[in-house]
């Protein structure tokens, strides 16, 4: 009964996040931090930061992988699946509906959508303040964060974040390897996943990546080509959901699966819904082959993320608790703070705070969240209403 209770709790909380988490992957990490770490204390700050760093290393939707990882640590593999369903299904349903009736309407510039973007600014800023206090307590780590911030702003490519995290890990190893003995030990977390399961998931990930294109050529079946295109797109993305869009366009528009106008209409719809941007695949699948295609596309594009996070979690404790690489993790975590600050500015701040009245609303929402300690759903509703009012000014 306790397992069922935990699964139900995960479903309720993740579904609420799936209905209210606007602003893209970095904003999602802020929402997760507020709900899972600050309010429910399902993980400690350092473990959450390590999990975020791990998911930044992996290709795929980082925020979805963080949510899956938290669900796994809470209630096993079923917990990870439940967390994923709750967070993802709301936007999948909405985008499949958009594909059939709503993508012809222009709601991307609606006032309440703009208000939700301002909410994302507030949530990310709050998360960054909390993580910075914990993860950059000294001048060395603040310097790493600053370099990561500057580099991600000035060098915006697909692999920038990965390169910065790797370099920060090397610098952290060199600077902090002696200091790790003085640090408070990282909590040892128990994962209900065996090493054998981890090896199996990683083998399946690489096996599908290699053999699906071969099977596609041999069989020439449309549904295999369909599955392969989405699976490969989900496997080769570093840097979040926005990076997957050009990959999907290259896969489906030139091949004639859908036209450029329908693709761009779906992109606008995806910006207007909460949850992970990878659910744009549900829209594309539904345009191509109805709701069945939408569900199959969603499964295909998220399957690599599942296999990677389930494949790496069993080895996470041995990595993060090994004194030889704890210094590297300290450097990585500091770089994540800089990356988050960079993302707060571009694209979240630059697309949300467009006038003094926007900054005024953001200040009110930030005070409600940080000083008055109001629940996030109240912040979301207030931000939406505030954005609607701003549109009439």
UniProtKB/TrEMBL annotation:
Coiled coil: none annotated. The chain crosses the membrane at residues 7-31, 84-105, 111-132, 144-177, 197-218, 268-288, 295-316, 328-345, 377-392. InterPro entries: Chr_Tranpt_l_chain (IPR014047), Chromate_transpt (IPR003370). One of its GO terms (cellular component) is plasma membrane. GO terms for molecular function: chromate transmembrane transporter activity. It is found in: Cell membrane. Keywords: Cell membrane, Membrane, Transmembrane, Transmembrane helix. It comes from the Bacteria. It is a multi-pass membrane protein. Belongs to the chromate ion transporter (CHR) (TC 2.A.51) family. This is Chromate transporter. It comes from Lentibacillus populi. The gene is chrA.
């Amino acid at each position: 009964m306790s397992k069922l209770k935990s699964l139900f709790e995960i479903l309720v909380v993740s579904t609420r996040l799936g209905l209210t988490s606007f602003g893209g992957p970095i904003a999602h990490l802020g929402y997760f931090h507020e709900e899972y770490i600050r309010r429910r204390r399902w993980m400690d700050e350092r473990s959450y930061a390590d999990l975020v760093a791990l998911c930044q290393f992996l290709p795929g939707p980082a925020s979805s992988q963080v949510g899956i990882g938290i669900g796994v640590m809470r209630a096993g593999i079923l917990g990870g699946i439940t967390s994923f369903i709750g967070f993802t299904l709301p936007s999948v349903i909405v985008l499949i509906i958009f594909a059939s009736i709503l993508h012809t309407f222009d709601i991307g510039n609606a006032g309440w959508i703009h208000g939700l973007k301002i909410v994302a600014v507030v949530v990310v800023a709050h998360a960054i303040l909390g993580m910075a206090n914990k993860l950059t307590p000294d001048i060395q780590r603040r310097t790493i964060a600053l370099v990561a911030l500057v580099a991600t702003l000035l060098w915006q490519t697909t692999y920038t974040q990965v390169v910065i995290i790797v370099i920060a890990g090397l610098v952290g190893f060199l600077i902090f390897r002696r200091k790790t003995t003085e640090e408070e030990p990282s909590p040892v977390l128990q994962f209900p996943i065996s090493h054998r399961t981890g090896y199996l998931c990683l083998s399946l990930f690489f096996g599908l990546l290699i053999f699906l294109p071969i099977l596609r050529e041999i069989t020439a079946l449309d549904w295999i080509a369909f599955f392969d295109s989405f699976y490969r797109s989900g496997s080769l993305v570093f840097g979040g959901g926005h990076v997957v869009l050009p990959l999907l366009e290259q896969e489906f528009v030139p091949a004639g699966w859908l036209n450029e106008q329908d693709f761009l209409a779906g992109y606008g719809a995806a910006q207007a819904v909460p949850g992970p941007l990878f659910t744009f695949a549900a829209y594309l699948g539904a345009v191509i082959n109805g709701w069945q295609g939408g569900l199959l596309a969603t499964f295909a594009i998220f399957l690599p993320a599942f296999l990677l996070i389930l494949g790496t979690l069993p080895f996470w404790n041995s990595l993060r608790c090994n004194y030889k690489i704890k210094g590297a993790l300290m450097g990585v975590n500091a770089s994540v703070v800089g990356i988050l600050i960079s993302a707060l500015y571009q694209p979240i701040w630059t697309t949300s705070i467009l006038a003094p009245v926007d900054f005024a609303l953001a200040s009110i929402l930030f005070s409600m969240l940080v000083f008055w300690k109001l629940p996030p759903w109240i912040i979301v509703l207030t931000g939406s209403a505030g954005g609607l009012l701003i549109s009439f000014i």
